[in-house]
Amino acid sequence: MRRMGYGHHALIETLHSIQESFGYLDEDALRYVATTLRLPLSRVYGVATFYQFFRLKPKGEHHTCVICVGTACHLKGATTILEQLEQRLGIKPGGATADGKVSLLTARCLASCGLAPAVVLDGKVMGKFTADAAIAWIQKWVAHDT
Amino acid sequence: MTLPIRVRTLKIDDRDVSAREDETILEVARENGIDIPSLCYLEGLSAVGGCRLCLVDVRGVPRPVPACVTRVEEGMQITTNSERIVKYRRMNLELLFTEGNHICAVCVSNGRCELQGLAQSFGMTHVHFPYLYPQLKVDASHERYVIDHNRCVLCMRCVRVCDEIEGAHTWDVMGRGIEAQVITDLNQPWGTSDTCTSCGKCVHVCPTGALFEKGKSVAEMLKKRQFLPYLKLMREEHV
Question: Rounded CA gap, B193 and A20, in Å?
Fold first, then answer.
């Protein structure tokens, strides 16, 4: 995992690997990375929070719902979808529902602007989405699991 | 053998000036007594071009360029105070005010604040944009110093001085855009930071009252900057 010579430039790559293995970056992991790569703690934390890809909290146990808030999707009403989902699930982007079933995330452009507003449900990209459709999906998930 | 440093000649506000080729527009202007406002720039630290208050016009370049990070070139024609430049600088300054909660009347740096000073020199009487009134925290966990994020303009002077001069790199910036904030270590309370040496350099380079010493009341915080040119001089390699 860290065979890149422990260079400072390996930071992002390392964070990627950790998130892949553990699902998110916890404090111990960040501390470990900083000490091993001999980087300042604040720099590591800064990088981990700058990129929206990195999560500092565990993601929902089963399902993830990523809403694109890039320019094209924003114009096509991604904000409305996001607001309605926030209200419906009672969580903010980056958080997971209390039962840990669904986590809500935002992304800045999925490079599928032709499908705007785009949403990724469990890794599947869905285009031309509406808030109602998203809520229907999430309800289906929840109903299916119980 | 090092290459000899060449001299460049250029025009700033129709005045002929000469400069070493490794100088920036801001340095040359200041040497020649031409005033260019700046906020994030501080002599002795690296320049980041973050505040965008030192914007100047260069003939032949469509965009305004930040003077603190732009090297001089032969034959440059620079305008430092055109109507357009003044408008942009003022807009940037006003936006700095909208993004924080800058209330001079209760600030430790009142009367000595660089942000306040800039607003005065720009003749800024009001802000044309809606204030955001962000809910920001004050961290007084350090035994000697306090950070008030409400007054922070993200100039990154504290980040740079901590890294470049003190060598501790306790400070950095987290997040992006409007949510960006300066942090100590893993976004933990300053008092619990293991890397902080409590040297206070960050406090004294801070242009506003965001970083201050405990126990200072309104307008009492005096920033002592003398250490920076001194340390820089002492650490220079003399050949």
Answer: 29
